[in-house]
Amino acid sequence: MTGGNHTPVIHVLDQSTVNKIAAGEVVERPASVVKELVENAIDAGARSIRIELSASAGSISHIRIIDDGCGMSPQDAALAFIPHATSKIAGIKDLDTIRTLGFRGEALASIAAVSRVTLITKPQGSGAVAGTKIVIAGGTVKEHAGIGAPEGTSILVEDLFFNIPVRKKFLKTINTELAHIHTIMEGVCFSHPECSFRLFYNNNEQMVTDRSTRPLDTIARLFGADTVKHLIPVDAVYPFMTITGYISQPSLTRKDMARMLIIINGRFISSPLINGAVKTGYGTLLLKDRSPVAFLSLQIDCSLVDVNVHPTKKLLRMSREKEIAEAVRKAVSDALLAHDLIPAVEAPAQAIVSLPAATEKQPVYTYPLTETASSGVSESTHAGTIDSDQRLRQTELSTGIPAFPSRLPAIEVIGEFGGIYILGRTETDELVIIDQHAAHERILYEQVLLRLKGEHHSQELIWPVILHRTPKDTSVLKELLPALTQEGFVIEDFGRDSFIVRAIPVVLGRMENAGIIDEIISDLVNDASTGSVNNRERITRIIACRGAIKAGTVCTKEQCQRIVTQLRLTQNPYTCPHGRPTIIRFSRADLDSMFKRI
Ligand code: ADP
Ligand code: MG
Q1: Is the C-beta atom of 411 inside 6 A of ligand 1?
Q2: Angle at Cα 411 formed by Cα 410 and Cα 416, nearest 5°?
Q3: How do residues 246-303 score in pLDDT, each as one tens digit?
Q4: Which of 63, 81, 108, 307 to mutate to test the pocket of ligand 1 (most atoms within 8 A of CB)?
Q5: Where are the domains of the chain?
Q6: Full DSSP string of 204-231
Q7: How many angstroms separate the Cα of 166 from the Cα of each of 34, 76, 161, 162, 371?
Q8: CB burial of residue 19 (10 Å; 0-12, 13-18, 19+)
Q9: Whole-prediction pTM value?
Q10: Considering the domain 341-350+367-598 in this protein, what is its CATH number?
């Protein structure tokens, strides 16, 4: 624009251009229109809101929102489309105590600047007096007239972005745009259970919620009763905020964070900070790369929240972020701690009643069978028994008396299966299956953490071990040395890609062979990419995994019982440090229903 020999000339943009530019901030896609109009309906005190969408020629062509809210007088109806016209605040001070979702007075002006809008409205309680109809296209009023209308407001938006072809070009497929609308509506429905919502697409009902005072009803309507079954309540009060809602048991997770709905002071927002805090609250209950499901509503002291930092208010700014995040983490962690998290087995819909026909190809599952693994409990002196004994002894707690009531019921071991699973009966007469490796890993993990607090967590090797690594491994290992030292390793750089290991953590016990040390170091170097946990945490998990009794090692009944006893002494007996379950239960009722006894 500014060629070398021209002086740029500044001019003020005309109002229509200004409006279109401003609209770009608020109206990004059809979902933004839905969000703004639905929020206006909620602010108008609507009890029932209907959203109608339809598509033609590859895009969403009609968006109509109908509410039974307060409606507008003829004068207000005209003012509503003027930029920065609002009934919700009078001055900036009102933002400190804002109760409405809107306050910027931008949405209707922005939407009308980039589409064709038809508004029909009539104030509540105005009786037989006519309503108002206004048609605006590209910001220009085309029609303003009286019309017979029900009380409340209906706004129809058509030809979105007809006058901004670039924006239109960037719209995605109808399905993608519908998905965005669904996401917005999930948040809106959850944050406003006092309202009933009905969403139609091409006249087909897509989403319905009823008015309710129980958030679980709304969650069930949106995400199904199955989701609700896996939720546990969160309820926490802090001086500057309260947290209520539901989070999933660790048995219900997703690979993305799309089911983490966070509401702050009635606003559905996206907050990486809160999402992160929720995940941290799960600690080792979550598998790497998995996210929980969470429906949380935070009421935070208004003076700590600035809602006016984003045109669509999708983001908020919070002061005391650290304390807020810590409170969320604690609320989540407390809720999980207060809950019995042993996953129950769900009866398969179709019980197995007949053998498959001989011609049918069935997948064959083979287990590494040993002479004793297929039934009952091994009493053999398997070579692994001694090793298992050694590993178990490392994790026997000195006192044996739990400092807190165990979170698992008492369990009597009744058998073992495949060198992997311990079968047990609980004091409440349930059948439990325990993954022996995962359980021992959990035990070891908690002990490593405990012993870190003590003094003597390092033991010298009688024969120092020399490790040779590739140059690439060497540089990773050098970076990890300080963290390894903290864990009780004494490792020195020996030059030429070699290291000498002089001491290892006590918890690794008598495993004084170069093999296991080499394995641990390899795991560490290979796993250096895992960004989500810090080095210490990674090292602890790897020590736990490598030190634990391996799957496939047949344990004696007595050893199985010792694993169970030790597992009951852990703070979090439900998962291994990587988030895999350690224990699953079948109640009598579960079994009866699987066998169709009821
Ligand atoms: P804001 O919501 O920030 O005030 P908008 O441009 O969204 O700005 O709306 C402007 C004004 O129009 C609102 O302040 C409100 O008074 C009125 N209004 C908009 N939608 C409705 C509706 N559905 N029912 C009643 N009044 C409405
Ligand atoms: Mg608004």
Answers
A1: no
A2: 165
A3: 999 988 899 888 899 999 999 999 899 999 999 999 998 988 788 999 999 999 988 8
A4: 108
A5: 15-209, 230-337, 341-350+367-598
A6: EEEEEE---S-HHHHHHHHH-HHHHHTE
A7: 21, 33, 8, 10, 72
A8: buried
A9: 0.71
A10: 3.30.1540.20
Q: Which amino acid is at 18?
A: V
Ligand 1 in reach of 40 Cβ (< 6 A): yes
Determine contact, residues 187/261, Cβ cutoff 8 Å. yes
What is the Cα–Cα distance from 361 to 29, expressed in whole angstroms? Answer: 50
81 Cβ closer than 6 Å to some ligand 1 atom: no
DSSP state at residue 80: T
Protein fold of 230-337: Ribosomal Protein S5; domain 2 (3.30.230)
Report whether 395 contacts 566 (CB < 8 A): yes
The Cα 440–Cα 388 span in angstroms is 10
List, in sequence order, the alpha helices (H) in 454-534: 471-486, 514-526
| Residue nearest atom 12 in ligand 1 by C-alpha distance | 80
Sheet harboring 152-158: ordered strands across? 140-147, 131-137, 116-122, 152-158, 59-67, 48-56, 196-201, 204-209
Using a 6 Å cutoff on CB, does residue 87 contact ligand 1? yes
Give the per-residue pLDDT at 41: 98
Q: Compute CA distances 256 → 5, 190, 241, whole Å.
A: 54, 19, 27
**Cα–Cα distances in angstroms (integers) from residue 331 to residues 256, 271, 293, 324, 516, in the given order:** 22, 17, 15, 11, 39
C-alpha of residue 18 to centroid of ligand 2, in Å: 19
CB-facing half-sphere around the CA of 103: CA atoms within 13 A: 20
Helix, strand, coil share of the chain (percent; to 5): 35, 25, 40
Summarised one tens digit per residue, pLDDT across range 468-517 is: 888 878 888 888 888 888 888 888 888 888 888 888 877 776 555 667 77
**CA 585 to chain CA centroid, nearest Å:** 25
Q: What residue type is 118 in one-letter code? A: T
CB burial string 109-122: b at 16+ within 10 A, e below: bbbbbbbbbbbbbb
- What pLDDT is recorded for position 346? 63
How far are the Cα atoms of 43, 51, 439, 570, 578 from residue 442, in angstroms, in the given order? 50, 50, 5, 8, 9
Measured torsion, CA atoms of residues 506, 512, 515, 519, in degrees rounded to the nearest 10: 10
As given in the structure block, the two tokens for residue 432 are: 């439990």
3-state DSSP assignment of residue 438? helix
CATH of domain 15-209: 3.30.565.10
Tell me the C-alpha distance between 71 and 122, whole Å: 5
How big is the chain, counted in residues? 598
What is d(CA 219, CA 303) in angstroms, rounded to the nearest whole number?
Answer: 30
> SS in 3 state form for 236-253?
EEECCEEEEEEEECCCCE
Token pair listed for 302: 């208004």
Please give the pLDDT value at position 452.
61
Q: Which band of pLDDT confidence, cut at 50, 70 and 90, is reported for residue 397?
A: low
Closest residue CA from atom 14 of ligand 1 = 86
Residue type for position 589: A
Residue 108 Cβ contacting ligand 1 at under 6 Å: yes
